[in-house]
Amino acid sequence: MKWLLALLALALSTPAMAQDSDFIIIAHRGASGERPEHTLAAYELAIDQGADYIEPDLVATRDGVLVARHENEISGTTDVDQRPEFAARLTTKMIDGEEITGWFTEDFTLAELRTLRARERLPQIRRSNTDFDGLYQVPTLEEIMQLVMAKEMETGRRIGIYPEIKHPAYFADRGFDLAAMLVEQLHGFNYNGPGAPVFIQSFEVEPLQRLNDMTGLRLVQLVAAEGGPADDPSMDYADMVTSEGLAQIATYADGIGVDLRLLLGADGQSTGLVEAAHAAGLAVHGWTLRKENAFLPEMARSDAPSHVTGCPAMIAEAMRHAGIDGVFTDDPRLIVAWREGEGSAECRAD
Prior knowledge:
The chain is α/β, with parallel strands linked by helices.
């Protein structure tokens, strides 16, 4: 708690100008703390709240269209389990070494998928989001880029896209090269070169290495607190964040996207990974900052139930002081307010 109070005092004494403009705010699946994730409504709300980038996770349909879902298994984020016409498509598959039962995007054409409606993935935590269940379709990547361009025209500001290709090795075995499909569409919308407002991310290594030869767009190697890349069982993420591992990542990527637990210690101070990554020439973006007590470190929780808002701005402040370059957040409204010097010390109950 002492480090939390120190950060609070510093936040109150720091002029708004000092809230790093280089600290980017990435809307994780859109403003998913306020709308069902990976819907056009969630992305548009995030843009309206001031997020610098929106983050679509991308999977493929049976007819080869990139759509936004956190996973290719869609029973948790759509009403597919309520649709008797698709009951026979319930199946079990092995994905990245895990046996999963459900309904999968690659078993649906885009036209079939469009008959489904999105729903809140965490209804017990995000109860108000369930008011929007059944309102929105599963969006395509093309629709997301069209939305971004329309909002750029409307607002006059640059809005970035931070897509993740999901399970690329799994999809490659089924004839879908997600990396090539993504680059073709991005280039088709005139996103080219390292100056474009785009980061492409993956937990796997080989797709990023190929992308390094396919595009000048910036690439980010995702790193989890446990396990390793699904496309190379011989590798562990723990080895990838050593000095030697970071130097290897820097040969094909521009940054790392890292579980916050690897970046900040229990005292809120840097673990040293940020400094090591910067020394290797890599940007560092942390994931995922959410507002609810259920997802926050103990010192940033309020004295309220798990679904109630804690103190996410305190974690953002710790990230800034650790030198982290950006954050994935479900709640861009709160983190934008913190960056602009508004409500940075506020802990409130919803």
